[in-house]
Amino acid sequence: MHTIHYDHVSKAFRYGLRSTTVLHELTLGIEPGEIFGFLGPNGAGKSTAIKLLLDFIRPAGGRMSVDGAVVGKDPFRHLIGYLPETPCFYENLTALETLWFAGRASGMPPGRVRERGAEVLARVDLEDVGRRPVRTYSKGMKQRLGLAMALIHDPEIFILDEPMSGLDPMGRRLVADIIRGLGADRKTIFFSSHILGDVETLCDRIGILNRGRLLFCGSVREIMDRGTNLEEVFIDLIERDERGRCG
Amino acid sequence: MDKIWLLARITFKDGIRHKALYGIAFLGFLLFAANILVTGMFSWELGKVAVDVGLSVVSLSGLLIIFFLSINTVSNDLESRTIYMILARPVSRAQYVVGKYLGLALVILASSAILGACAAGSVKFATFRAPGYIPIDFSWGTFSLALCFLTISLLVLAAVAFFWVSVTTHPFTAVLLSLFSYFIGQNVEAVKTMMLATGVLGENPLVLRAVDYGAWLFPNLAAFDLKTTAAYGLPIDAAYLVWLAVYGISYIGLVLFLTVLVFRRRELG
Q: What is the distance between the alpha carbons of residues B64 and B77, in angstroms, rounded to a whole number?
């Protein structure tokens, strides 16, 4: 059984009288314990697919499941740790208060939240600023706090939308190390990214999306057989798809 | 219930640390100082003026909190996607609506309590200088009741504002609709009574029906205004107050229920 499963999922957005389909019958399965990279150019539909999975928006057709729980019907959010593309917080709270909410809302007992809060803050290198209001944080610090929120309740499944965005090289390395560590613990990680180098080194399998259609889904080794590096193959796939559309 | 309380707590904490609240509180204190100055210029009904101005300042500050803090906070949750931080947890949309509302209600309650104490202080100070001008039947009990019902009316308006934020896509529209609801709520009952009593537009059944529907749909905020009663120390019927409180709380419950229904269907993309 797939840990995360998209089954012919479509999504259309309405702009005035016009309706635009942004996801076409997406079918995708992510195996337990694998690191899956979701790639695509801007506007390809990656974030839309993730928001659908979290039930923030509703599909026009198809169904999704997380660890067997049907999205929109069964409870599943206790199973996942989610990092949005641009994490936003209650700016007047401190990082520790934010993590307190995250842990308690995920059902953790108060004592454990305190312990684990300090632990994950140290893991994302924010332990010295835990008592400062979030409004004083830089973009990179907010990104790392978002990751700490995803980690606090030690879920089995991670859904990370552009986890490296807004990070400096040190921050990127830190996040990459955390993802690697989670992978070593056999956690399932589904993440979208633009940074192909990171995807190449971190992922077991990848999916490439363009204009809402899945162009490729397979192992990194499989795609690397098509060219010298992931970036080259990625650009080639997208360009071929674009040419195909133009006729 | 735990999750609702958790949400209420973080909303309250975030709200009371908001810079806008400090501005509103500062304005409130300035107006209380003005109350003392203004009442010094009156040579009659000094106590009435002090009570009236004091409670009006609490009301004005509450309205500013609703329009500049509450609407902004909920809109910000939706626009900047702060809501993802909450709904990515095992928190339902209904729990979000109720928890968020309770947190904002706590901010309004805290503001009413602090500014109400300041209002009482300004009344005490103004009348201390001229004890002869205190209405004979003035009682702090009635003053406190007026403050309580003023706060309930603010809570009703906050629920209505939350509803408008949930059905609109822009905070400015929500502010406009909330202002519109406030003005209708303050005046519709008086307009209806006046129309029926004087026969103005009485021949036009459409207008009468529209006003009638308006009186049913929008909250009768004027009913919660007990400033005159407090200022003159007039007697109040206990049963009337109980029904008024029941009306206010039921209205809040109904509006929150509708907000939950709308919110469940809303796309948070």
A: 19
